Amino acid sequence: MSVVSAYLTGMDRTWFDERMRQNNVTSADVARAADKARTGLSNILSGKQRMTTPWAEALASLLNEPITEIFVRAGVLRREEVSPQPLAGMSEPDVVPFQHSNTADMNSLEKLFGADRPGIDVWQVRSNGLAAMGYLRDDFVVVDSHASERARMGDAVIAQIYDRNGDAATVLRRFEPPVLIDFSPDPTERHVQLVDHDNVVIRGVVTASWRSRT
Description:
The chain is of the alpha+beta class and 214 residues long. Helices cover 23% and strands 22% of the residues. The chain contains six helices and eight strands; from the N terminus they run αααααβαβββββββ. It starts with 12 loop residues before the first helix and ends with a strand.
């Protein structure tokens, strides 16, 4: 069962109808903005299918509402579960790029996983935010930046979360569309951040990992 599915709380159809009426927005307007068939919106508002990012982005734009509010009103997220943006300048990164002086310094594992190609990089884990998924502090991960737009449910990803000053915190998270979650060993410390491609942006997908014996 998806982690996000556990957050479903019910569609607030009345709120959407009222906000669309106040903004003189029709279903056709929303469908056009989302580049989707109008029947899709009808199914979402009637609770037959879940709100997806393209529909949420279209509604957020046309209704002049934060995309987080759209997902909360659609029952995809609980308001209290959505973490505020961290102060990026004061946050320790979950992962840091692993630097080599030159390509010849790479070990056989790194080359096997393609880290000698552009856009495929080695990072080192600096937190236990995804410990429950098996990624521990000081582990090495291979990250494919080309796959950032193709991240799928359950992928471990590197993302950046921007604060109001434009500073970014680099995090290692599990992708459960439309949000990122961490898997700390302490369930009470697990957080949710909505991927809005503005304040929260996926930068790459983890494709391999290993642990040093030393």
